[in-house]
Amino acid sequence: MAEERTFEPGNGDPRLFDQFCHEHEAALFTFALRRIGNREDAADLVQDALTQTWRTISQVDPSAGGYAKWCYRILRNLCIDYRRKKRPRTAEDEELERAVDKSAPRPEEVYENRVTSGQVREAMLSLDDKYCEVLLLRFQEEKSYEEIADILEVPITTVETRIHRAKKMLQAKLKRHV
Known about the structure:
The protein is an all-alpha fold. Helix content is 74%, strand content 0%.
């Protein structure tokens, strides 16, 4: 009977790392997309994060949360750098592509949804990084407070405070749009 192998930094098996990438790539992409608002740049950042994860994997302590947490940290830092260097572009072309799709909602529904989702996206992107990322990790990625604290390397009480403040700030920004 074949022994099941998992990815470990010492075994150097690229196939196992490829499996790791496939398991986490979608969640990483969603996190990056919500963070910066552009599909192409988000995909590039995820690839950069996975490449950096592979190159620095020997620095990972599996008992301290593992490779996924390490990869999220790398991606988080890449997103922060991206936002510092470049103002995020809008994703209106994505809504237009969905409008052309026959299974997509009618154009007026797309417009109504775009206005609402666009306002939320803009409000999220206008929050400080520390508030935006806790909301994304909690509500988009469905991470627990403990997982968020591990990824961000902050105490759980800080995560709780940031989520509470971020919700209030987001609510206030959205009320101004109504």
